[in-house]
């Protein structure tokens, strides 16, 4: 603490506090008192968190077979997986979201059996497209990371398991996958922050997460800067939460550093 | 190929034709804008990043703290939000200063705004990558140059920067690919780069599965050629270095 509070830093902190105080006092925050906007903001933050959690989970579940296919699969499995990763990582996420939402969204109504299926009420909404697009994005990026993780597990581990006569699936479940996942965990926090920073893109397909909510407030009230400042603070807070969460998770796992 | 498929293929080619009923020219103009913005933003980001990296390592305590605040905030807030904030702040501040100097309001060209905004974002990430690159330069090299009395600018130009190039290249390559993809975010503030052009073309013609794959192929073309060229560049930067495997 004493290291942190050097004289120049105290001055900088005071300056920052003055800046915050100026923002709080001289900018227009009256819209925050409106219960309608309060509800929208809370709902928006909740939706953002929901999207991050759901797409990270689905994406990681998809990333395991994609990484495994690239690390150990025969060419007819590894080639499609590699193409998938290249396309996802080589094109903008915004474009993928729009392709799914506008492209598939215009294709589905012209196919009779989809229109009659039970899924149709969901397919008419925007969120399935957002979840699919963001999950595929995670799968593409993490598939590449998982490939490296699978390859990084020491060969001796796998050979020992084989020598003990372990069937391939048990080997994957008990030896290969747990060690690969352990290698990925430190990078997963950063990937989750990236995913959080991708979520505002789904506001372009009418999903009312926190970015879209502030956009609507700005349209309603003609206030330009203040909602954007609130937005930046919300994202910084969420980023901090994710960083703390993963630090805690990593701390729970005993590690042995050589 | 059945006749129906043949007609579909022919109409897809018509839609992508360069002359007006086709949208090929619009897409290519969008691609041109995307590339110009990516190059400009990357260049600006490199200037900021290089100053930032040296500032973070060798600057005074205040410079260090301010740079830490800059990189932390920019990397914690989504690019889209930063683009909006900087877009309004940049044009607003510029016009305010111009008005206070008694000059006319100006409409800044969207390309310049895009370059400045994405450049500030790139600068934060490049600061970190270049800082890591400098840290990986063996300390003895820099100390030897200092001991010989080399002035700090010459030291940076002749020792640190050539030696850090190989270390920083992989990270810088990733950031270049990010820069090309981040240009798509400018579509949201209504700037006509490749993604926006694709959106307009497909919204008008309803041929979503012609224009989106075509535009994705263009983005892939950029990233694959970049990856290839950067691979060559890294080989060049690592010339004379021993292979890690000792070969």
Written description of the protein model:
The complex is a heterodimer of chains A (258) and B (247). Chain A has a single domain, classed as MetI-like fold (Orthogonal Bundle), CATH 1.10.3720. The model of chain A has no long low-confidence stretch (mean pLDDT 89). Chain A has helices at residues 7-26, 35-72, 75-90, 93-107, 112-116, 120-123, 127-152, 155-163, 168-198, 210-221, 225-252. In chain A, helix 9 packs antiparallel against helix 11 (225-252). Chain A is an all-alpha fold. Chain A starts with 6 loop residues before the first helix and ends in a 6-residue tail after the last helix. Helix content of chain A is 79%, strand content 0%. Chain A is built from 11 helices and no strands. Chain B has 247 residues and is an all-alpha fold. Chain B has a single domain (3-237), classed as Orthogonal Bundle (MetI-like fold), CATH 1.10.3720.10. Helix content of chain B is 79%, strand content 0%. Chain B has helices at residues 3-15, 24-58, 61-76, 79-100, 110-135, 139-147, 152-182, 194-205, 208-237. In chain B, helix 5 crosses helix 7. The longest helix of chain B has 35 residues, at 24-58. Chain B starts with a helix and ends in a 10-residue tail after the last helix. In chain B, 34% of the residues are buried. The A-B interface holds A 6, 8-9, 12, 86-87, 89-95, 98-99, 102-103, 106-107, 193, 196-201, 204, 211, 224-225, 228-229, 231-232, 235-236, 239-240 and B 61-62, 65-66, 73, 76-82, 84-85, 88-89, 177, 181-185, 187-188, 195, 198-199, 202-203, 206, 208-209, 212, 215-216, 219-220, 223-224.
Strand-pairing-aware structural class of chain A: mainly alpha
Approximately what portion of the residues of chain A adopt beta-strand conformation? Answer: under 5%
- Give the biggest sheet of chain A: none
CATH topology of chain B: MetI-like fold
Q: Which runs of chain B of at least 5 residues are low in confidence (pLDDT < 50)?
A: none
Name of the CATH homologous superfamily of chain A: MetI-like
What is the name of the CATH superfamily of chain B?
A: MetI-like
Estimate percent helicity of chain A: over 70%
Largest sheet data of chain B: none
- What global shape of chain B is seen? flat
Largest interface: A-B, 38 and 39 residues
Shape of chain A: flat
* Model regions low in confidence, pLDDT < 50 over at least 5 residues of chain A: none
CATH class categorisation of chain B: Mainly Alpha
List the total number of helices of chain B: 9
SSE topology string of chain A: HHHHHHHHHHH
The radius of gyration of chain A is: 23 Å
Structural class of chain B: mainly alpha
Quickly count the helices of chain A: 11
Ends apart, CA distance between termini of chain B: 53 Å
What CATH calls the topology of chain A is MetI-like fold
């Amino acid at each position: 603490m004493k290291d942190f509070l050097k004289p120049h830093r105290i001055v900088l902190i005071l300056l920052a506090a003055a800046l915050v105080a100026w923002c709080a006092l001289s900018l227009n925050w009256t819209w925050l008192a409106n219960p309608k906007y309060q509800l929208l903001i809370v709902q928006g933050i909740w939706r953002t968190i929901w999207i991050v959690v759901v797409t990270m989970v689905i994406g990681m579940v998809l990333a395991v077979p994609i990484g495994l296919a690239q690390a150990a699969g025969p060419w007819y499995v590894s080639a499609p997986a590699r193409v998938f990763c290249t396309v996802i990582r080589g094109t903008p996420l915004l474009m993928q979201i729009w392709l799914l939402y506008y492209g598939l969204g215009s294709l589905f109504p012209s196919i009779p059996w989809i229109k009659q299926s039970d899924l149709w009420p969901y397919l008419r909404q925007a969120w399935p497209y957002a979840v699919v697009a963001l999950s595929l994005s995670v799968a593409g990026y993490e598939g590449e990371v998982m490939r490296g993780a699978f390859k990084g597990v020491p060969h001796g581990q796998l050979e020992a398991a084989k020598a003990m006569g372990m069937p391939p699936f048990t080997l994957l479940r008990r030896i290969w996958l747990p060690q690969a996942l352990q290698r990925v965990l430190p990078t997963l926090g950063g990937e989750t922050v990236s995913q959080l920073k991708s979520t505002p893109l789904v506001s372009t397909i009418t999903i009312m997460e926190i970015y879209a909510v502030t956009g609507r407030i700005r349209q309603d009230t003609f206030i330009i800067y203040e909602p954007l400042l609130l937005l930046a603070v919300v994202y910084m807070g969420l980023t901090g939460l994710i960083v703390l969460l993963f630090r805690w998770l990593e701390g729970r796992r005993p590690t042995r550093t050589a | 190929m059945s006749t129906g498929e043949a007609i579909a293929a022919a109409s897809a080619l018509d839609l992508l034709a360069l002359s007006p009923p086709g949208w090929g020219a619009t897409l290519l103009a969008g691609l041109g804008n995307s590339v110009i913005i990516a190059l400009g933003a990357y260049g600006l980001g490199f200037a900021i990043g290089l100053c930032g990296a040296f500032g973070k390592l060798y600057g005074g305590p205040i410079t260090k703290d301010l740079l830490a605040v800059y990189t932390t905030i920019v990397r914690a807030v989504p690019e889209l939000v930063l683009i909006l904030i900087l877009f309004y702040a940049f044009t607003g501040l510029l016009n305010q200063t111009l008005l206070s100097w008694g000059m006319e309001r100006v409409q800044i060209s969207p390309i310049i705004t895009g370059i400045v905004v994405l450049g500030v974002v790139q600068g934060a990430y490049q600061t970190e990558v270049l800082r890591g690159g400098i840290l990986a330069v063996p300390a003895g090299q820099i100390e030897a140059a200092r001991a010989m009395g080399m002035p700090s600018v010459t030291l940076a130009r002749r020792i640190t920067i050539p030696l850090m190039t190989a270390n920083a290249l992989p990270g810088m390559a990733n950031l270049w690919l990010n820069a090309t993809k981040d240009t798509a975010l400018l579509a949201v503030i209504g700037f006509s780069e490749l993604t926006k052009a694709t959106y307009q073309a497909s919204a008008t013609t309803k041929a979503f599965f012609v224009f989106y794959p075509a535009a994705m192929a263009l983005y892939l073309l950029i990233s694959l050629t970049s990856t290839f060229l950067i691979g060559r560049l890294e080989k060049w930067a690592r010339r004379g270095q021993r292979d890690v495997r000792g070969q």
